[in-house]
Every structure is written in C-alpha cells, then in structure tokens.
Amino acid sequence: MADPATYRPAPGEIPDSPGVYRFRDEHGRVIYVGKAKSLRSRLNSYFQDVAGLHQRTQQMVTTAASVQWTVVGTEVEALALEYSWIKEFDPRFNIKYRDDKSYPYLAVTMSEEFPRVQVMRGAKRPGTRYFGPYGHAWAIRETVDLLLRVFPVRTCSAGVFKRASQQGRPCLLGYIDKCSAPCVGRISPDDHKALAQDFCDFMAGDTAKFTRRLTQRMKEASADLDFERAARLRDDIAALERATEKNAVVLPDGTDADIFALVGDELEAAVQVFHVRDGRIRGQRGWVVEKVEDAADDDLVEHLLQQVYGGEDEAGRVDGERRGDTRAVPREVLVPVLPPDVEQVQAWLTGLRGSRVEVRVPQRGDKKDLAETVRRNAEHALALHRTRRAGDLTTRSQALREIQEALELPTAPLRIECYDVSHNQGTYQSASMVVFEDGLARKSEYRHFSVRGAEGDGARDDTEAMHEVITRRFRRYLAERANAGDLEMGADEDGHPRSGPIDETTGKPVRFAYPPNLVVVDGGPPQVAAAAAALAELGIDDVALCGLAKRLEEVWLPGEEYPVILQRSSEGLYLLQRVRDEAHRFAINAHRKRRSKGMTVSALDSVPGLGPARSAALLKHFGSLKRLRAASVEEIASVPGMGERTAAAVVAALATPSHAGATLT
C-alpha cells in the first residue's frame, strides 16, 4: 500500500477553483473520479491523517499512486465532466450502478429515409427517438399494434424492406393497412417521415390533437354519408383511446415528472424511478447500487441523476435536433433527499432540457403518495434481488467456495452457525444462534440463549457474553454427542431430511449434537478471541471460526493481526453478511421478547396463591401499587375474595427490598 504523502501535491500547486480530479494507481489506472467546488480544499482533505479517514477512503488513498485534476469554469461543467469520466474509466472506488434487468424501449429511427418503429435495448443511438422504458417487450408490441392502425409506420427490418422493394410486393402488414408500404412507393419519403413524426408526437403525450383530428374527420365522413369511412375512423379513435388507457392516470393532466425512490443499507441499495408524462406513468426503471465508496443518500441521488440524464448532453441533440423525446428531462424531478449541490444539478438539468427543471422532495398530496408507491417498489426490488442471489444454486455454491478459499478451510462450510448478542445497556441480555445449510437459512435449527453471567445477573460485556454462549452451545454438543451414541439421520414431518441426527428413543432431533463447519460471530477481534477461548477450553479444534465486523465488513480470524478482505461484489461476503444480519435480527427479537415480558411483571406475581383476577381486584380497589403497599393486612383482607392469610402474604411480598422500587406496567 502506498503512503499518500509520497504523491501529495506541493503546497500552492492545487488551484482554488471548481474542477474534477482523478486518482490513479501504480499502473496508471483511474480508480476514483470526483468533483469539487474548490479543488484545493477537497484534495487536501484526502491527505490528512489516514487514521482519521473513513475506511473506504483509506483504502482508496493507499491504493492510489498519483492524483491529477482538471479545472473547469463552473460547477455545472464539473458535474458533466465527472459523469463523462466515470463512464469512460469505470473507476473501482466510485459508486456502481447496474440495471436489475435490461429494459426495452420503443424506438423510432428518425434519421433513416423511411423511419422504422422497433423495440430496442442497450445504448441509445444518435438520430433515434426513444420512448419508455417499458417493463416488458410485449407491452411495447401491444401499444404499437394498436397505433399502427392510425399511424401505419414501417416496422420491418432492413432485409425485409429491401426484399419487398426488389419484388415490388409489400409484406402482410401492407395488405392489412398496418403499414403504408413505402417499400413499394405507396407513400413518399416526406409523407412517411411526417407519419412517423405524428407517431412520435402521440407517444410523447400529445394525444388530444390526434383524437380531435380523427373525430372531425369522422363527422365530415358521416355528413357526406360515407358511413364506411366514418366507421373506420371511429375504430381508429377507439384504438388511440385504448393505447392511451394503458397508462394509468396518477397525477393531474399536464404533469411531467420523474419520481425517484431509494431503499437500502450500508452495502447496496435499490433505486426505482417512475416516468410520468401528462399525468400518466409512461415507464418504470430500476437499479441495484453497490456502495463501493463512502456515500450518503444525498450523494447517491446526485450520482443517480447523472446516471439517468447524463447521456442526454452527449446524444440528446444531433445536428441541432433532439434525438430522443423532447421531454426526456421533465419539468420536475422528485427525489427522496436533495443532492448536496441542488442548485448546480438544477442548472445542469435545465441546460439539458432547454427550460427550467425543478429538483425537490415531495411534501404532500398526490405526488407524495406516488413517491411512497415508488419507494415500496424499490423495497420489493431489493428483496427480490437478495432472494434471487440467495436462492440460486450456482451462486450459493460460488459463495461457499469463496468462503472456503478466503478462510483456507479444508472443505466448503456446508453448515454455518452465527452468534450475536443483544441487550439494552446490559439488561435482558439475549443471544442468538442461526444456522445456514448449503447457503440457505435453516430456521428449525435456530436457538436463542438468555445470558446469565458469572454472578447470574448478566455478563459484564459482549465478549464475556459471547464466551458464555459458545461455551454453553458446544458443551451441550459434547454432552449430547456422548449420550446419543450411534445416531441416524431422520426426516421431518414433511419428509424433508433433517440437518442433524435424531434420538432413536424419542424420535426427536438432538438439538446440539450436530457440529458446524464454520462458526461466525458478529464482531471483530475481541469477540473472535472470546469465542476461540471458549472452543479451546472445551478442546474443540475441528470447527473453523471467524468474525464479521459490521462497520467495515472485515473478516477476522483468531490470532491474526490483519483481517481478511473480501471483494465487495463477492458472493462469499454477501452470504456472510446475510448470516450475520439474520443472527442480529434473531437476537434482537429474543431480547425484545425478554424485555417486554420483564417490563410487564408485577410485584404481585410472586405472591403465592394470588392469581390474575385477585391481583386486578386489589389494584382496582387501591388504585395503585403505592397505595396497596401502604395498606394494612386488615384493609387488604376487606377486599372481596381476599383472606387474611393471602393478605398477609401480599404485605410480606411488598415489604421485601427487591420490591421496594417495583412499579406496575
């Protein structure tokens, strides 16, 4: 690793101007691109004490070997240049966006002599107008099939078009009036291009103009007693209306907005955007974001807007004409949080659109409700992404193999157990044990522990709690392995094989007689050391152990000075994170149950012979536990259902020191 001081620019070299900077590694590869209002201030922040930097920033500056910068005139120019360089160099320490799928667009090749309507994916091409994205290609084809009745634009490939021209005979669409057949000269190039322009205008949202035009023609044909033509125009109007109805009206007419939502954790996030034009949802798109750099939600939003709109300044205009939808950048961009330099982002988007663009957070009304819908879609997309990664057999096998190689295990860890401790300032200490087999959660094997501590009132700290939990689990393992004898694998009630052996006498699974291949503890070196000490004290040396520190996602091994670093895109790290997060969730649930139960315990619960009904009667009669404690035996015995013996027991119970400060909840 390089020392940042070796390539730090000399004082006074860095200009105090807006610009974009690049960090390069020893091989000259760009590893990070950033922008700044003041290059001097921003770059100097990277060369402070390395220990004071965020871990990901530490890794970046120690990987880099040089830094370069480019001065620009304004912050808006810096925003555009940063996007261009990120797209060109794909730096490893910048945020990575990847589509959760390849979205199809409806494309019209306006640059061709005879424009063609088609479904397209991938990079956008100059001279082509795009509409969408759509969730499925069939949704585009249904829309196009309806519109070709009114706008019979060419849809055939270049090969089919050329062959029809040579034969002098159009394809089937030409015979059924769903193509104007420019291949055989039924329509001139200018008229066909005008037809394609009308198609684009309709798709861009200017629908009322064409409905009014067809309605007027229908009335004229009816007045001329040309009822056959009037019927065809009536059917054309119905086709346009059906195509329009495919997009739900969600906002008032005339509303043009893109609505973004962001949901995630420290490692990755799901992003969704709804494209609303003329109050209708015209398209939806989603990404999964890997947080490879230290970025808050506002930074993610800024990078996201660069991702979505950044290509418009490169391909949005060709020879002075718009390539795509003239409203590719809408009037409003609604985001969950404002980007850090919202004024500059608005200025940049305004330049792309050619008129004012407002970036804001919706506060109330229909737009806020729709933003909540987009957020729920993002939550679903993230859950689906995680489920697909976890459920794929090939991915799970790769994850287990990566863990085996990283930890240098003799075999893949087919059974992984993870432990976590949860408490509230030392009270109601609970611990969890979760089990993953073949990369999948085995919830029937989950266990939770109430941490007792040496004195019976809880452990002093998390390391002592971890030591106790590991000791109890593996002491039971040793005892049950010795007592169970020769055990056989069994099947559960549904016929699925159990992960552990069963007791032949009871037919029930032996709870702790099946050892894991790998034990994972939630924490760093202290927790790992405590778990290793517990295993060593029991003489267990055939179970691998590691810890996963949540803040930096480092894998710690017993006795090692430095952690094992897995790539952030590693399936092995992803599996360890899932195991750790599940243990954390299960531990919190166990802790909450204990805390809830403990907080609802009354001082009267320990009185022999006093049940819930008579306890309630006492509290109703005296009004509070404080008044009940001050009452005499005779006063308590006067309550209906109470006797002198029970009343004396109540007085004695409430007089004990342990109940002196008790309260009823």
Tags for this entry?
665 residues; alpha+beta; seven-stranded mixed β-sheet; six-stranded mixed β-sheet; 21 helices; 42% helix
Describe this structure in words.
With 665 residues, the protein is of the alpha+beta class. Helix content is 42%, strand content 19%. Strands 15, 16, 17, 18, 21, 22 and 23 form a 7-stranded mixed β-sheet that branches. The protein has a 6-stranded mixed β-sheet with strand order 4-10-9-8-13-14. Strands 2-1-3 form a 3-stranded antiparallel β-sheet. Mean pLDDT is 78; it is low at 313-326, 486-500 and 658-665. Keywords: Cytoplasm, DNA damage, DNA excision, DNA repair, Excision nuclease, Hydrolase, SOS response.
Structure at a glance:
This protein is an alpha+beta fold and 665 residues long.
Count the E strands: 23
For the record, give the distance between the C-alpha atoms at the N and C termini, rounded to a whole number.
58 Å
Classification by helices and strands:
alpha+beta
* Mean pLDDT figure: 78
Beta-strand proportion: 15-25%
